[in-house]
Fold:
Amino acid sequence: MDGLLAVIYYTVKEHIRNRVFLSFLLFCGILIGSALVISTLAMDQQLRMILNVGQAGIEFISLMAVIFITVNLVLTEMETRSIYLVLSHPIERWQYILGRYLGTLLALFAAMILMSGFHLLILFLKGWVWNNSYLISLLASMAKIGVIGSLALFLSLSTTSSASAMSFTGFLWVLGHFSSELQFMAEKSANPLMKAALWTVQQIAPNFSYYNYRDFWQAIQTPPPAWFGWMSLYTVCYIGTALLLSSWLFSRREF
Amino acid sequence: MKKIFRQNMGLFLSLCLFAGVLVSNHRVQKLYTLPFPHFDALQVKHTGIQDISFILFGFRGLAADVAWIQLLQYVGGPGIFDEQSPNKFDLVKDLTLRVTRMDPYYTQAYIFGASLLAWIKVINRPQEALDILKEGLEYNPRYWPLHLFAAGIIYKQKNQLEKMFEQLKIAVTQPDCPVVVKAMVARSSADEGKIEDSIAIWRIILADPKAWNYHSKARTEISKLEKRLR
Structure:
């Protein structure tokens, strides 16, 4: 446990000192600030636009950060050979993988909370009234970043280069937002082979549309409480699967 | 055997957890269906790549906002209040549905598009306005201003203008009624000779601090209409 906590601690510290990480944060601040300018084009829908640009901006920057950081998380240490130094300490390999992932996630979540604080400040200055759906949307967005982060880590260990890992992660992000359409296509398809293929892809790919709570909180029928429980289980199981596979791949590497 | 199991424990455990993914995914889908039209219903004639890219990146709300700005730019061109204008604004319905099919809960877009189609003289296509409101009511049955505007348009189609203006008067006094719709109704009222009603609506706009960009217009219109009254 001490080994795991030590890895988490040094990962968080590494990210906070990282200039790339800080520039992501700064860029998001600029993006949220620019929402003020862009939203004037929306006439009396200015608040809605600031809300949407801000939430989308926070998620997009977090996505970029999680892809770039997680893909290079272990690969850089392997290339610079500092991994030998880390593994010479009394820590298990799974602890190293889990610690690196959790440390990255903690740093990213802190950044997301900071960015949301800035976003909320702008919204309140513009006369927005607090709605609990904002918090649920933020939590859903964090869960989504958690899932894509675990997939990025898995892909970084299973592919040969960081560029291909980043591309595959990006592809999974898009596929994840297409999965409800895949289900629809599977239902409509008359060809049983196509039906089976679409159904399989839809089951395996992460279903990211369900994390976009910000898009459907205004719907006449919102999800029942049990749905949130199942979504949490889905998230934990998906992250767990990707981390176990990453840990398994990492344990087979020879250092 | 034991050694193989120990070496690949991570793989076996991940398979077990993946079963959890499948079960929870099934339950998630059973408990709630995402309340959006599918891609085949999107208005993709002119801007398909842009809209679908936004949605596939997970930014549906933002896509609707961009489409909303593009709708405003389309109708904001010259000629909308000019009866001799050659531009008949044929794309208003399509562009409104483009916004609302990406975000079916964008109630202000339904009201704006329908108001343009029903009450702007150069456009005047009330049936298309009703089509938009009908779609809006399917997704937002509890949002009563949509019912109000639909009733107003039906009265207009039946040429019962008194009843139509009664409906509109209620609609424009609502705080969430878009300013641009209030301005449209004020103009339409003046065109139909209801000068006092028109002045009253412009005064509502003038009293609304959020509609600051309409205040100068409201003052000019009020003074013009008061001169007509004298």
In short: Chain B touches chain A through 51 residues (CB under 8 Å). Chain B has a mean pLDDT of 87.
